[in-house]
Amino acid sequence: MVNIHPTAIVEDGARIGKDVQIGAFSMIGPDVSLGNGVVVGSHVVIEGRTVIGERTTISPFAAIGGPPQDTSYKGEPTEVEIGPDCIIREYATVHRGTARGRGRTVVGAKCFMMIGAHVAHDCIVGDHVVLVNNATLGGHVEVGEHAILGGLSAVQQHCRIGAHAFLGGLSAAVTDVIPFASAIGERAELGGLNIIGLKRRGFDRPTIHALRAAYQAIFNGEGTRAERVERVAEQYRDIPAAMMIVDFIRKGGDRPLCSPRA
After folding, report:
1. Is 122 a catalytic residue?
2. Is the pTM of this model over 0.70?
């Protein structure tokens, strides 16, 4: 059964699924779609072409689907898509895409955006990502599944954060962080692998050992980095986790690769 507080504003055209709850003084725009079981707290604004996946909960004063903070934006009909089973806490913000970008901002399934977290225009955030309080993603950032970004951390525009990576609190990523790595610092540098995260997510000991060896070979081996990456690809081609690092580096991006501390 849908439960909409009398003071909430749900504009004509909004698509409201089964068992949705919308709290007091919230506003749902005409192009919004709320999946079954979505819970919207009080004083929430959801606008633009925004799709919220089933069973996602949105806490008071969050703002989803607002226009991008990009001077090129001229009101184009861009989008936000948020997957199912996400938790979006107070004052979190997600902005829609830009026409010169992807045109869409995407947050995957089962993500946890804590208080004040921000996902800027054209970001792609994978499943099971955690953005701790006031973590901030600049425009066009890509975050792989199961990554954790610590409190008050920031990621510069166009950077990539690999799957299962960890960015420490108060850290600023201005370069691409490989999968499974831990990055820390005012200008974040690699501090090794995210061993705690690997263990929590059930990676077995042989895989962790292979990742350690691959990490050392890529960043401390002989030859150019490209040569080292190809050697790792040959040696660990049967280890999917190691190949995730190889593929991440091979793909490249707009930013250089985050390196270990000197």
Report:
1. yes
2. yes
